[in-house]
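Continuing the batch. This is chain 6 of the set; chains 1 through 5 are on the previous pages. Same settings as before, nothing changed between runs. Recording input and output for traceability.
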Amino acid sequence: LTPSLPGTTVSVSKEAAGSADDRDVIFQGDPARPNTAWLLKKPTTAEGVKILPVKNAGLFTAQVFQSLAKSRGITLSGPEFTSSLQPKHILAIHESRPLWQIAETIFATSDNVMTELVLLHLAKAITSKPQSLKESAAYLESSVKRSLPNIDWNGFHLDNGSGLTPNNRISAEQLLAVLLYTDQISGGIERLLPVGGWTQGLQNRFTHPNQAFRVVAKSGGIFYSTTLCGFLYSASGRRFAFAILVSDLDKRKMYDQSSDEKNTRKKVYEAQRWMKQGTEYLDSIVSGWIDKY
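Output for chain 6:
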């Protein structure tokens, strides 16, 4: 097994992933040091590809650039850390896609990392200094409250921007208020949301001929919490905005507090079954609204 890029050390264990520890990839390096080390549990197949996270994105990007240049016959020295933000010579400027295109991708793929990066950049751009994830979430929380002062924000709390935590809190009424607010700016948020039975994100939901293309919404969830928020076009042609959140906080608390590694697979299976049932319940509610109204 040979990594395709420098700066990454990968070793393979003779032990397969098991009930005691079902992780098949384990980080063994030091995030503060240049190199990244991973331990892969014994693979179940002779060949394959394993995608690994990047711990030091800046260094990794520089090494990728160095490798690409070498393949074109250009030899570059190794990347070096610097505290200077002003380069001596600008060779090229690469700008990201417009934010609305990034948002469209996030809504389709539910990419948590992209969501957190957008939040961090947003907070930094407005406050003119880097913010931690928690500080950025706090800024977003206060900004939402200021934008909608007539809404009861009791209980509303954000720990991060992606929702990948059991600590975030928002009611259906609060979420619906945010949806309606974003429906009034920059052409409306609906144009960025997945379409039921058609585009990525809701491609395999609302596929019945009477339902397809009638739901434009964002789904989301973590174990023991599932959500669907967006717009629906009923059989009569009326347009409705909706937000549905289904959670079992007691089961989530039990899931987080359980430390019995032997029951890890059972815990995950039970949580996944709950998520499947919750999603089916949400879809049945929305489908009923399409037919009823």
